[in-house]
Amino acid sequence: MQPDKAITTHASRQLPGDLAMWLFIGAELTAFALLFMVYASSRALHPEVFAQGQSQLNSQIGLLNTMALLSSSYFVVNAVASVKAARRHWAIGHLLVAIGFGLAYVVLKSIEYYQSFSAGYGLTTNVFYQYYFLLTGFHYLHVILGLILLTWVTPKVAANDYTVGNTSGLESVASYWHMVDVLWLVLFPLVYLLH
Amino acid sequence: MKFSSQAVAKPYFIAAIGLFTLQIVFGLTLGLQYVLGDFLFPEIPFNVARMVHTNLLIIWVLFGFMGASYYLVPEESDVELYSPKLALWLFWIFLSASVLTVIGYLAVPYATLAEITGNDILPTMGREFLEQPTLTKIGIVVVVLGFLFNLGMTILKGRKTVITMVLMIGLVGLAVMFLFSFYNPENLVLDKIFWWWVVHLWVEGVWELILGAIMAFVLIKITGIDREVIEKWLYMIIAMALITGILGTGHHYFWIGTPDYWQVLGSIFSALEPIPFFMMTLFAFSMINKRRRDHPNKVAALWAMGTGVMAFLGAGVWGFMHTLAPVNYYTHGTQITAAHGHMAFYGAYAMIVMTMISYAMPNMRGRVANSAKAQSWEVWGFWLMTISMVLITLFLTAAGVLQVWLQRYTDMPQSFMVVQDQLAIFYWLRFAAGVGFLAGVGTYIASFFIKGEAVGLANAAR
């Protein structure tokens, strides 16, 4: 590929969604990156506490949740593509399925929290549980915010607020939802799987 | 000025500048007491002077916010203020309450003041920055409620803009957080936790919304940039301010008896707190660079850019310096905190009020901008105050670093007062810079009385 051609293809590529949303995502990712680093360094300091704590986690639920979020993101991708292809009804359907998978995550994670709390674990149990609840709790709140955003755009899609060429708002929400997904893809192996 | 009722801002601004001057006088007194311990003793002991210095700051900034809001809201809403009479009444109530409170601080011992004002009925006194007698606190609540009612009614009958919405959220937040000053739990940990809800969630939370709204308003006026662009910046700044600032409260929960996860939360979120301040700087500079017109009020633009830079340095950089828990373990409550407090308050809140005064005052005095000569005096005031504040901050930082070293970091730590003696040279330098600051305040005030050919409506370069 010639260099000038490379530049033109690059310039014609558009940022999905609003720049403001990307700045927001950047800030969110920074905050989580710091949390992951603190988790990692703390784990290096207390390997046995972390190993013991991690062995108590329910990685089956973790895996199901990974699938739920990934599927949800897939349906959000389809929803945006459908709006761009002027297939509004498909888009609504896909959004509803995406919300359903998101809700499944919330329910499963709540069950997991309930099990942990019933077993007597909490934020102040030990250093592992402190980070476990902080990291997953933050993420959980982000899933809920993402679901609120998805629930907010769905009627707007139905009302034809997004048209071909005017999908920035929807794309912003979709980008946010993918961020929630990406964060979990780091969080799940880091907290549940890496022993 | 579009509406005559905007003029109620004028007494608020005058009172703000008056109390600001008084605050600086007490600051200089304190500065001397650091090195000459018995200066003005027993008439004005250090603890009283300090209380007056910090309380005056809060009060004059509130006067500034109120004046700014009374000026901004009618213009944004495109209607006259709901009740200018109420605004003037509240002004006199607030001013008398403030003056009486300061007289109370100075005239009688604090315990006597508490007794006279019925603190035993509803005890709220005795906490740093919130030393006001309960009666004064109730007075503040009444004034703020009346103020919010007046603004709310104005906005309801007029145009609703993003700026007025952000301003109102900030002001309502200010009122709501202040209510925690009435909650005085027995448990010292809880007491500190909720005390920070007022102190921290004011200056690193809702006040940033007020700051952003005022900044956005002035920038629209002096640059002529599209409202949509300015509003988008405002949204991003306030979102970042709240995301980082609310959990950033954790940096006050490191050592007060709270669970230790606060060290993680506080460190992470407050490390991000410089971001909204940095965005504020970018905002001011890029809007002024892309300006669509050359407003004849040059000095207002200088204040706006100065607010961005100094708020970022004072609140952002100097805050970050000691906000991480492992660092704060050593720096907590040293002169590093004082350095940060001075530059942050000046850069963010003193300067935004002066930005608004600089823009609005000429308008209220029937001109678009002051004469070139008056503006040049104001510019001198700006630089004298700002450079002096930078020096104050640097000297206090040097004092703080030495203090941390001698008192907490060496193998043979020395006691507080022994260390204080060794910091004297920095305190003298800080006092000298303080005199420079007072000269700046004098120059700034003088600029209001300098004549010369003002830029009127007819000859304004549009």
SSE string of chain B, helix = H, strand = E?
Answer: HHHHHHHHHHHHHHHH
How much helix is in the residues of chain A?
Answer: over 70%
Which spans of chain A of ≥5 residues are poorly predicted at pLDDT below 50? 1-11
What proportion strand of chain B? under 5%
Largest interface: A-B, 14 and 18 residues
Q: Nearest-angstrom radius of gyration of chain B? A: 22 Å
Largest sheet of chain B: none
- The geometry of chain A reads as elongated
Mean pLDDT of chain A: 91
Would you identify the regions of chain B where 5 or more consecutive residues have pLDDT less than 50? none
Q: Approximately how much beta-strand content do the residues of chain A carry? A: under 5%
What is the first-to-last residue Cα distance of chain A? 45 Å
Provide a descriptive summary of the structure in words.
The complex is a heterodimer of chains A (195) and B (462). With 195 residues, chain A is mainly alpha-helical. Chain A has helices at 3-12, 19-45, 47-55, 59-84, 88-118, 127-158, 168-193. Chain A has a domain at 59-127. In chain A, 83% of the residues lie in helices and 0% in strands. Chain A is elongated. Chain B has a domain at 1-160. Helix content of chain B is 75%, strand content 0%. Chain B is built from 16 helices and no strands. In chain B, helix 6 packs antiparallel against helix 7. The longest helix of chain B has 38 residues, at 372-409. The radius of gyration of chain B is 22 Å and the shape is globular. Chain A binds chain B through residues 20, 23-24, 27, 30-31, 34-35, 38, 123-124, 130-131, 134, and chain B through 232, 235-236, 239-240, 243-244, 259-261, 264-265, 267-269, 271-272, 275.
Brief overview:
Chain A is built from 7 helices and no strands.
Task: Pick out its properties.
heterodimer; A: 195 residues; mainly alpha; elongated; disordered N terminus; B: 462 residues; 75% helix; globular
